[in-house]
Every structure is written in C-alpha cells, then in structure tokens.
Amino acid sequence: MQTTHSAEDLRTQMATVLRAAGSAPEEATTVAENLVEANLRGHDSHGVGMLPRYVEAVLEGGLKPNSKVHIRMDTGTLLNLDGQRGYGQVIGEASMKLGIERAQQHGSCIMTLGNTHHLGRIGHFAEMAVVQGLVALHFVNVLSRPVVAPFGGADGRYGTNPCCIGVPLAGRPPFLLDFATSRVAQGKMRVAHNEGRQIAPDTLIDEHGRPTTNPAVVVVPQSNGLFGALLAFGEHKGYGLAVACELLGGALTGGGTWHKPTDPSVRTVLNGMLTILIDPSKLATQVAFEEEALAFVDWLQAGPVAEGFDAVQIAGEPELATRAQRTIKGIHIDAQTWREIVRAAQSVKVELPMQ
What pLDDT digit, counting tens, does each position of 73-132 carry? Predict the structure, then answer.
C-alpha cells in the first residue's frame, strides 16, 4: 500500500520534524527541500525516507544540528573544509558556494570536504555548479556500515561511494551523471524491503556470500546477526572506481576511510567529498566547448532507437521527466516508510498523520 503526498506538504512536514530535532528554521527548510527534491527526481533512496535515520543520529549525538562549515585551508584554488558533523545538505551547499566563488575567480578550484553527515543526492551540488557555467566532478566516500563487497570478496567492506559529473550544455539542461558505485544504492534496498519487493539477480549476496534477491540481507541483521552485501557495478571496473572514491573522498580529504568492524546500532552516516570545479570560459575553450558538447549530444540522440526504448537519453533527462510528473501527480511513499517517518516524528514530539 502507498500514500501520495504533495511536495509542498512533505516539505512542511519534514521541516517541522527537523526543527523539533533541534535545527534552526533555515537549516530545517534546506534539509527538507533537499530530501523532497530527491523524491521528485525519482531518487527515493535519498528522499524523505532518510528522515528516521537522521533523527536517530541526532538523538545519538553523531549528527550535530546547526553546525557550520569550517575552513581549514584556503589558497584560492585549493580549499580544505570540515563539516563538523553537520547536516550534509547544509554543509554541502555552503561548501559549494565557496568553491564556486573560487572557481569563478581563478578558473578552477579543488575542494576537499570531510567529517560531514550524509550529503544526500550529490547531483544537487553538481547542479549548483553547472547553473553557473562550471564543470563539476565529485568523488564521495561513505563512513557507515560497509554494505558493498569488493570484486572477488564475500562480505561488505566499503560504502556505496557515489561519483557525480556535471557538464553544462548551452541552452539546454545539463549532462548530470550521478550514481552509486554499487549496482544499486543502499537506500533503494531499504525502499524495496519496505515495499516487499525482490531485487534483480546479480545485485546482492547474503551473509554467507551467496547470491540472493532478498533486499532484507542489507537492511536488517540476519539470523546470525550479520548482513549481506551489495555488489559493485561493472565488476572489477566499478569496484576500481569505488576504491578511487574511497581514496579521493576519504583519504585525500582527511575525512577518513573505512577499515574497522561495523556497529549496526550506529545510525550516523559520514561522507567525505573531493570536488573539482572548472570554468571553461577561463580555459579559452568556451566556444569550442559549447559547440562540441552540443554536437556530440545531438549525434547520440539522432541515431536509431533500440527496441524497447522511446528515445536515446543522456544522464539527467530521466530525472527531469520524473520531476515534472511527480510535481503534478504527487510523491508515492510506501506504508512502511511512512510508518517509520511517523515514529521518528513522535520521538521528537511531533504528530504526523498515519495515512
């Protein structure tokens, strides 16, 4: 069973809960808008279903409401930032504003961000850059329960480690590539588990390292108290990119990498992110860049369409189509996820409707 909610109602409800959990009104609004935007774009894994984990992390003390980004080092083209365990949606936006300013001034900026709570949908930060005409590259690691098995491995050793690349296209929506380096995002397993769905083969292994289609193995402890794991996308190639995200987003940023036993009771999710911002106008390639980018995209989409597809798309287009549809028809939330949100609200003395 599902319930349907308008984006505006969800923004208001989520912000109310976040304020009750200790966030100032502006912070609560920013986080709520970011969560709902993820739902609108079809990324329910990073949407309002994350709220219960955020509230639990606040109550545990691992997530610090109203924290500000701390500048550790700033040379203009290099930024080293610390999120001080604040809400990643807020810290991430503040960090990107600093990086965008530096890139516009100097032509580029390399920015490291560590020790921030869950950043949410990384594509949002790339969108902030491309709207300013900048190219953005993001490499992210995840310090939480390790849920992805290395290629050739039989248990979880690292996180879903997202990679995101945003490229502006003159006069058109940008190319926006945003993906977990696991075959699917961990949050999608939570959604599938709550909805009672099985997962496609070759996506998961159980706690014994055997293939399974049951998403519960990475959502709740199994009979022996252990978890299963997601597989990397693209076999050794996706695994290699995931390791790169850990080394760049974790080690290089100073935020840390994952190399310890897991504690399934801890709800805190910390991210590190390496961001590279480039201003094409200062490379003296602006005209050629715009012309060649559009020519290539047009070439891709002018070709014949394969059976079973409506069109040849580029990264970012499916999310825009989903956003347009959900803005009109509303956002569907499964009954279990909504119950979890209601319980999280109750834990900070906010009552939300059960249906």
Answer: 999 999 999 999 999 999 999 999 999 999 999 999 999 999 999 999 999 999 999 999
User: What is the C-alpha to C-alpha distance for residues 230 and 312, in angstroms, rounded to an integer?
Assistant: 29
pTM of the predicted protein model: 0.95
The whole-angstrom separation of Cα 74 and Cα 85 is 20
Beta-carbon contacts of residue 217 (< 8 Å; ≥ 6 apart): 204, 205, 206, 207, 227, 228, 229
For 248, residues 6+ apart whose C-beta sits below 8 A from its C-beta are: 139, 141, 274
Quick check: do 1-66+316-355 and 188-231 share a fold? no
* Cβ atoms within 10 Å, residue 332: 13
CATH architecture, domain defined by 68-182+234-281: 2-Layer Sandwich (3.30)
CATH class for domain 1-66+316-355?
Answer: mainly alpha
Tokens 């509230």 sit at which residue? 55
Q: What's the pLDDT tens digit per position in 22-33?
A: 999 999 999 999
CATH architecture for the domain at 188-231: 2-Layer Sandwich (3.30)
Domain ranges across the chain: 1-66+316-355, 68-182+234-281, 188-231
